Amino acid sequence: METSNPATLRTTTTVNAPIEKVWELWTGPEHIKQWNNMSEDWHTSKVEIDLRPGGKFLFVMGLKDGSFSFDYTGTYDEVIPHELITCTLSDGRKNTTVFSSNNPVTISETFDPDNNEPIEMQQRFCQAVLDNFKRYAERE
């Protein structure tokens, strides 16, 4: 977990699995619901993705007790299977996910922070989600 510069955050993990499996688990809505949370009290209750340049996405994320939720929405800008996904969130922030190597696969996410939330909290949240993906992918 590192901050690449004050305006951009970066998270990284290495997954011991082939790229084909990592890509499927990263982009499949039924899989995203299983790993896209920062802790056991969070969940992603709805996932809609149209994984192509210009395609839209929606993840409904929140606490399992229903006390808080939010929609994570945007548009895919670039999709190169097994290599790269870039998107623009509905509030204009950018997110880039790079998949490097084959087995193991290093996943690096670079994203613009939300200026309304503490940067350290966002960094921890995103790293926790990435770490959860690693656990999910390595046991599937």
Short précis:
The protein is α+β, with helices and mostly antiparallel strands and 140 residues long. It has helices at 19-27, 29-35, 119-139, and strands spanning 2-5, 8-15, 42-49, 56-63, 69-80, 84-89, 94-100, 105-111.
Verbal overview:
The chain is α+β, with helices and mostly antiparallel strands and 140 residues long. It has one domain: START domain (Alpha-D-Glucose-1,6-Bisphosphate, Chain A, domain 4, 2-Layer Sandwich). It contains three helices and eight strands; from the N terminus they run E-E-H-H-E-E-E-E-E-E-H. It has an eight-stranded antiparallel β-sheet. A hairpin with a 2-residue loop joins strand 1 and strand 2. The longest helix has 21 residues. The chain is globular and about 40 Å long. The chain starts with a strand and ends with a helix. The N terminus is likely disordered.
Q: Uncertain runs with pLDDT below 50, 5 residues or more?
A: 1-5
Distance between the termini: 24 Å
Instruction: Please list the strands of the largest sheet in the order they lie side by side.
Output: 1-2-8-7-6-5-4-3
Question: What is the typical, i.e. mean, pLDDT?
Answer: 92
Family: Belongs to the AHA1 family.
Domain Activator of Hsp90 ATPase homologue 1/2-like C-terminal: 16-116
Protein name: SRPBCC domain-containing protein
Pfam families: AHSA1
List the helices and strands and how they pair.
Elements: E1 2-5, E2 8-15, H1 19-27, H2 29-35, E3 42-49, E4 56-63, E5 69-80, E6 84-89, E7 94-100, E8 105-111, H3 119-139
Antiparallel strand pairs: 1-2, 2-8, 3-4, 4-5, 5-6, 6-7, 7-8
